[in-house]
Amino acid sequence: MTTPSQTVGPFFGHALPYDGGPELVPAGRRGAVRVHGRVFDGAGDPVPDALVEIWQADEAGRIARRPGGLRRAAGAFSGFGRCPTGADGSYWFSTVKPGRVGAGAPYLSVLVFARGLLKPVFTRLYFPEDDHEGDPLLAEVPAARRDTLIAVREAGGAYRFDIHLQGERETVFLGF
């Protein structure tokens, strides 16, 4: 017999974050980019106790196969990071823009852990300047909803990616 999932938290702010979690690379490293945004609930209010997690390839499109996400050596890149949201629902990462993996456009895999969710929700962050034609996942998303998966490039080179858990501007989430 299978036991159903149930919400017992949120404990994300106590058990999952770790020192340096949002810093996949130091902010001053050559090629470093800032990815940031806010997490919103269905009413459009910020979610102050969520946890955002990313997984990604490096600049050359290689996916790290070694452990070390929690213990990054100086200059090492694991492709994994976690950031708890602030009181205003904000999160941030210092990382590198990933290279293309296979036929698809470069992306970050994004997981969101939040109160009221039995399991994390999964989505992707694509970069606005990349060619999205031919990306197999984006091809499956209705054209009117694709913009919820594409970050906004800001002055200074940062990328903003707001995540809406429900509502009119709900981010496209993926089923696995």
Task: Report on this structure.
With 176 residues, this protein is mainly β. It has one domain: Aromatic compound dioxygenase (Protocatechuate 3,4-Dioxygenase, subunit A, Sandwich). The chain has 2 helices and 9 strands. The strands form 2 sheets. Strands 1, 4, 7, 8 and 9 form a 5-stranded mixed beta sheet that branches. It has a 4-stranded antiparallel beta sheet with strand order 3-2-5-6, with no helix packed on it. The chain is globular, with a radius of gyration of 16 Å. It starts with 11 loop residues before the first helix and ends in a 12-residue tail after the last strand. The model has no long low-confidence stretch (mean pLDDT 88).
